[in-house]
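Why do we bother with a discrete structure alphabet at all? Because it lets us treat a fold like text: something you can write down, compare, and reason about line by line. To make this less abstract, here is a complete entry for Tetratricopeptide repeat protein. Read it the way you would read a sentence in a foreign language you are learning: slowly, and without expecting to understand everything at once.
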Amino acid sequence: MSIKYSEQSRIFRDFRSIPYSDYYYLIRFYEQYDQDLDHLPFDESLIMSYYYANALFETQEYDIQIETSNYILEQSIINNVRYIDGEDVYMTVLHKKAYAHLKLGEIETAQKLATQLVRLDHNQYAYSILLRACFLAKRPSWIRPVLTASSISTILGGIITIIFSFFYLSLPAQAVLLPYGLLLLAAIGLFATAVGYYKYIMSPVRQILKQAQIDKKNAKAL
């Protein structure tokens, strides 16, 4: 089912006249007439809630956006509503809801929703990006400081090598070990970071994508 454009009530007509990019005005208008929404036809109230949730998302009001999204998802399923103004209600709202949970630090919830999105449509790149962001947020705490230390060691090693090149005749032979040691530590750190990134981020994301592709093929075969 797809909700089509309608103009049945004055509140709905006024809401439709607001540019959907004017997020703060949409929010103020919706909240001003919040008590009247229960008396509107279902399609009008759901459309208004849909754009209200989008405005909340764009203004980073994630707590209220999640609450509104739960209502929209529930009503869209109960009433078999798939599209609003040509947009997939379920997938659009679920994607923004998952992102909101991620921004609020609710990583496990965000990851579960992102995984669900990937399994529903593994070809949508935005969903895999969101899933990767969830695993990135869960990465071991040692990865970032090791990467930072490796970068600093690389820079210091390069600087010291350049400086030593001007005084190499007067420097003891052991002095060359300092820049080489720094560069070796940097290489080890970068290698460890790359392994950690693959193990804790890339590999689980690829496994989920692969399973989603397998499930899709099996569903088509039935």
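What the structure line is telling us, in plain words: The chain has a mean pLDDT of 88. The first strand starts at residue 2 and ends at 3.
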